[in-house]
Amino acid sequence: MDRLRAVNDQLEAEARLAHLETQQRLYELEAARQSPATVTDPVRFSLLTVEQTRAARDAATRRRQDVVSGATQIDDWLYRSPR
């Protein structure tokens, strides 16, 4: 009986650890999603024309929206109701 209790305690501890790791990863993903996009090469943008700058900015906006859309799909899957 003691062996079964020990196994049960170990399984519960592993489940709590997995839950905490999952929560931590969710918080990290949420923080990454909310952080503003950084410009990696500001000099490059200063050498572009106004039209090129606008096109680059629009492309970056579309990429960010695609990332958010993909992350939302993951969130929907993670938070789906159990069957």
What is this entry, summarized?
The chain is mostly helical and 83 residues long. Helices cover 81% and strands 0% of the residues. The protein has two domains: 1-35; 39-83.
Outline the structure in words:
The protein is mainly α and 83 residues long. The protein has two domains: 1-35; 39-83. It is 81% helix and 0% strand. It has three helices and no strands. It is elongated, with a radius of gyration of 22 Å. The model has no long low-confidence stretch (mean pLDDT 82).
Mean pLDDT: 82
Separation of the first and last Cα atoms:
33 Å
Order of helices and strands: HHH
What is the tally of beta strands?
0
Describe the global form. elongated
Keywords:
83 residues; mainly alpha; 2 domains; 0% strand; elongated
Task: Record the SSE blueprint.
Blueprint: H1 2-34, H2 42-46, H3 50-78
